[in-house]
Structure prediction request, 109 residues.
Amino acid sequence: MALLDIVSSILLIAGVFFGLSGAIGLFKFPDFFTRVHAASVTDSIAAILIIAGLLLQTSLDLNTAKLLFILSFLMITSPTASHALAKSARHGGLLSLAESDKNEKENAS
Prediction:
C-alpha cells in the first residue's frame, strides 16, 4: 500500500510541476503562438499525470470511471481548443515573432 502512495505522490507532484511550468511559459514566452504551445502541451501532460496519480488512490469503482471520463474529455477538448485558438489568431492576421521580424527586415530593405 505504501508503494502505491509513493508512486501516486510522484505522479501528482510531476503533474503540478508541468502545470506550473506551463503557467510560467504563458508569461515568459515572447509571442502568442509559443504561449499557446506551452499551455497546451503542459496542460495535457499535467492532466494525464494528475489524473493517473488520483487513479492510483481509488479502487475500481464509480470514481475510477469518472476520472477516466474526465481524462478522455480533457484529451479531446484541450488540444482541439488550442488548435482552434491558434488557427483563429492566424486567420485574424496575427503573425508569429519570427514572421513579424522577417517582414520588418523585408520592409526596411
The radius of gyration is 19 Å.
